[in-house]
């Protein structure tokens, strides 16, 4: 019984998507014979739909640039300088770079402890690197643990 309910629930969203797609295709294929007021309303609605699609594309672009910030921190600052999301992840990436540089310098100065420090530091930075990329790709603006509390890029 539960399996039938689950399969019905899974099929319902698919059916809705199919119905929406069919309605969109029908709307594209039917000629418009409306009064001026109706046509203006339809044009406004289609303009809003176009803006929504454009906004979604911009969001995907910003997400990708924010993820690339963890490779080269200033990429979102060049591609989308007004984006707060891009600036946030550029800042987190810069903090990660500074942390890595501190670990490398400290491990090179300390002779025996440096090997252990470098190994643990590499694992720590790698984990934060993956966390940052995952946050950027998922559209989250979450600070990295331990190092993410500082704002260098505002």
Short recap of the structure:
This protein is mainly alpha-helical and 154 residues long. The chain has five helices and no strands.
Largest sheet, in brief, is: none
Helix content: over 70%
Mean pLDDT: 75
- Please provide the count of β strands: 0
Poorly predicted regions are 1-40
**How do the helices and strands follow one another from N- to C-terminus?**
HHHHH
Summed up, the helix count is 5
Q: What share of residues are in beta strands?
A: under 5%
> Whole-number radius of gyration?
25 Å
Structural class: mainly alpha
* End-to-end gap: 56 Å
Based on CA inertia axes, which overall geometry fits? elongated
Can you characterise this structure?
- The protein has 154 residues and is mainly alpha-helical.
- It is built from five helices and no strands.
- The chain has helices spanning 2-29, 36-68, 75-79, 84-109, 113-137.
- Helix 2 (36-68) packs parallel to helix 4 (84-109) and helix 2 packs antiparallel against helix 5 (113-137).
- Residues 1-40 have low confidence and may be disordered.
């Amino acid at each position: 019984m539960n399996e039938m309910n689950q399969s019905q629930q899974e099929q319902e969203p698919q059916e809705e998507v199919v119905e929406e797609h069919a309605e969109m295709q029908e709307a594209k294929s039917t000629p418009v014979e409306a009064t001026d007021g109706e046509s203006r309303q339809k044009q406004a609605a289609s303009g809003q739909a176009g803006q929504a699609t454009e906004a979604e594309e911009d969001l995907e672009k910003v997400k990708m640039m924010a993820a690339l910030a963890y490779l080269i921190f200033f990429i979102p600052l060049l591609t989308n300088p007004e984006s707060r999301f891009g600036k946030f992840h550029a800042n987190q990436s810069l903090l990660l770079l500074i942390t890595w540089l501190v670990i490398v310098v400290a491990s090179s100065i300390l002779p025996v402890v440096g090997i252990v420090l470098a190994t643990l530091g590499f694992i720590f930075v790698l984990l934060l690197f993956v966390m940052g990329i995952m946050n950027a790709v998922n559209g989250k603006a979450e600070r990295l643990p331990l190092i993410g509390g500082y704002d260098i890029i505002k």
